């Protein structure tokens, strides 16, 4: 067997004919290490912020889905406990729309019903009568709505209450009042004793004590 034929290498037909040296590109490459590092750091921070934003969006979406599922489950449980009533969200929305469709004509005049009456309550040996009267609320206060006779009585009572009341003058005459007063005691002024005075007082106390001791011995 002969040797296998050697593969012939194809020559590169598109070889670069000329290499041009660019000093400005070389200068930018050699002096741009810090700049490129800052750009990479900034790109990484922007990518991290974008990922965090995307995670928050996904978390909120997941939370909404969980709340919706919990609400649907709660509605089903309530519907199961209350047969004949439906608390579905669609029904609630339709009811709200129907209420909004009706025209609101304001609050009509309400005619108050008479509530003046008496009620009797009997409980074994106890007998109680309760009188319910209508009241009128105004700026002057709360007043009861009664007949003219009661109003006249109230006016008389108010006039009597407005009459001046004379107070008895029980003041004592000035001379007697001065006599009843007790004389004020003068406050004793406190002063510190000098060393000589303290020494004399100690000697007096000692002499007095010695005399008393001698008198006891003589007895």
From TrEMBL:
Its main location: nucleus. Residues 36-109, 135-219 are annotated as: Disordered. Pfam families: Nop25. Residues 52-77, 136-148, 190-200 have a biased composition (Basic and acidic residues). It is found in: Nucleus, Nucleolus. It comes from the Eukaryota. Keywords: Coiled coil, Nucleus. GO terms for molecular function: rRNA binding. One of its GO terms (cellular component) is nucleolus. Belongs to the RRP17 family. This is Nucleolar protein 12. It comes from Knufia fluminis.
